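Mods, move this if it's the wrong board.
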Amino acid sequence: YCSSVIGYAKPDPGAFTVVMAGRPQNAVDVLFVDDKERNLAVARTLGMRTLLADEAGAWTAEVDRWLAMAH
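Not the wrong board. C-alpha cells:
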C-alpha cells in the first residue's frame, strides 16, 4: 500500500484501516513491521500484530518464524 495512493500516511489510523479492509476475508492475522513505535501502537489498536524492526536486522528471523507458524 502506498500512502500517496490511499490518501493516508502512518500513523493515521486510516492507513491501517485501508490495509485491514483490503486483506482476504480468510486472513485472520496481520503482522505489521515498522521501525517506529508510534506506528506500531496505532496498528495494535486495530488488531494487528506488530514487530519493531531493529537496525541490526534481527526482526527478519522473527518474521520467518511467524510465517512458518501461519502455514
